[in-house]
Amino acid sequence: MKEYVLSLDQGTTSSRAIVFNKSGEIVSVGQYPYEQIYPQSGWVEHDPEVIWETERMAAEEAVKKAGVEISAIGITNQRETTIIWDKETGKPIYNAIVWQCRRTAAICDMLSAKGYGETVTEKTGLMIDAYFSGTKIKWILDHVPGSYERAKNGELLFGTVETWLIWKLTGGKAHVTDYSNASRTMLFNIHTLEWDEELCEMLGIPMCMLPKPVGNSELYGVVSEGIPGLESLAGVPVCGSAGDQQAALFGQGCFEIGSAKNTYGTGCFTLMNVGEEPVRSHSGLVTTVAWSIGGKTTYALEGSVFNGGSTIQWLRDGLGIIDSAPEVNPLAESVPDSGGVILVPAFTGLGAPHWDMYARGALLGITRGTTKAHIARAALEGIAYQVTDMMNAMRSDADCEIAVLHVDGGASVSNLMMQIQSDLLRIPVERPKVVETTAFGAAALAGLYAGVWESLDEISAAHESERIFYPERPAADAEKDYNQWKRAVGRACGWIEK
Ligand code: ADP
Question: How far is residue 278 CA from its own chain's centroid?
Fold first, then answer.
């Protein structure tokens, strides 16, 4: 009987591997952090060989610890990070340019000035931004001598991290990217599910270097013989892949239109399933392929809040009113409300739906009676208010109701914040037992192909709730506070002078 799936979770700061059983439980974990390379201010790189080596070691460790037979391998990865390598030797021609890297901002300004914005949004669901892979590929081809010619001759291959790992695992046999990752390149038409000639021309990218776009749950290849430490995996199918946020949406069991997940990490990442037709946002959210299985494609709206858990870190490191992140909860719970204090955590401006780079943080409503407990509570509320703003934008863009918000990420352990979130959104907030939703999503995609799980229903069954928070406060009270928040955001917007 097929029972175990290996999930490779290649993140921005560490490479991890987790073996899941059919019940969705974690059997074993391997994890290796690795080096961030900062060649200059605003630039971020990784060594692709180190990405592979740490991921290989993590897989070896997880498989060894589990001591079970692996039926399938799924992959999830930091998205947009760009790698170009030599097809023959397998050697990267430059370091991986990481999603956070802003070096191509000027290229983006140039594209916007030339009026490409509408074309890019219409075809890719994205806005022109240095995050996405397209301009990173252009930068490498512009800066590594001879690389453009070599790419044109078919000697070089491009891939995001899942492409690179699948290529390595299959011994160079499979050069593929799944649709969810392809959606983040700014080169991929999310309507036709094909690379877009016009966009490739716009950036001077030879199309022969691009990987073949493939579904999220299908056979990409099998693990090749002779990979050191992974001998026992030779012949195992690599058959599931999705970018980290999409994998989390899948792992949270958000299979229905209007089901959404939010990850409360340093920032917050929200995705909502909008069904089989892409929805165009009018609030600065992006549209992306969530997954495509058996020829049926599901789309999502995506948005992010820049400062989520980082607000709690600021209480600890900036204000010094707590010694560790978990202490925020008893401190905030020690008062019944924030005493009218509102904290707008616009430390680095505000993202969707406000999009104000000139906004800065604001602490409003302070009186002589304000204590650190009120500020701690206002911090948790400020995170939940921002997520509410974004989810309301999603509700209106997609013109649908959100039935339940599934949550994960380090700060989702705060019971108080989850209760506040439910009170604001007026829907249940569900926290799963296994919080490794990203890794589980990749395992589920692979296991669905391999027959470990027969259907989405079986995957849902493997997803168990740890706790569900229901709205408790009267709606009118929550709304009154939310209106106060909106006034506070108005004060924070446009704060620094242009
Ligand atoms: P990332 O993946 O972005 O590094 P994590 O998902 O690991 O983030 O979450 C880390 C965040 O969670 C930190 O910003 C921290 O402030 C917050 N956090 C950690 N523990 C708690 C807790 N017990 N209550 C509230 N927030 C917490």
Answer: 18
Q: Is the shortest distance between the CB of 326 and ligand 1 below 6 Å?
A: yes
118: tokens are 């509408």
Q: How confident is the model over 367-416, as pLDDT tens digits?
A: 999 999 999 999 999 999 999 999 999 999 988 889 899 999 889 999 99
Asked whether the beta carbons of 2 and 452 are under 8 A apart, the reply is: yes
| pLDDT-derived band at 356, boundaries 50, 70, 90 | confident
Q: In the numeric block, which tokens belong to residue 50?
A: 């180190």
8 A C-beta contact, residue 252 and residue 397: no
How would residue 242 be classed by pLDDT, with cut points 50, 70 and 90?
Answer: very high
Strand runs labelled E in 87-155: 96-97
For residue 356, the cross-strand partners are 350
* Dist. CA 409 → ligand 1 center (Å): 7
**How do 72-77 and 237-243 pair as beta strands?**
parallel
Q: What is the pLDDT of residue 348?
A: 83
405-460 pLDDT, tens digit per residue, is: 999 988 999 999 999 999 999 999 999 998 889 999 999 999 999 999 999 999 98
Calculate the average pLDDT of the chain: 95
Residue nearest to atom 7 of ligand 1 (CA): 410
Q: Of all atoms in ligand 1, which is nearest to the CA of residue 410?
A: 9
- Tokens in use for 138? 């252009």
- Structure-token pair, residue 398: 């997609």
Strand partners, 195: 188
Please indicate whether residue 410, judged by its CB atom, sits closer than 6 Å to ligand 1.
yes
213 near 188, Cβ under 8 Å? Answer: yes
Length of the chain as a residue count:
498
Distance in angstroms (rounded) separating the CA atoms of residues 398 and 121? 16
Q: What is the distance between the alpha carbons of residues 133 and 379, in angstroms, rounded to a whole number?
A: 34
Beta strand residue intervals within 326-424, DSSP E: 342-344, 362-364, 405-408
Q: What strand order describes the sheet that includes 221-222?
A: 26-33, 14-21, 4-10, 72-77, 237-243, 221-222
Is any ligand 1 atom within 6 A of the Cβ of residue 416? no
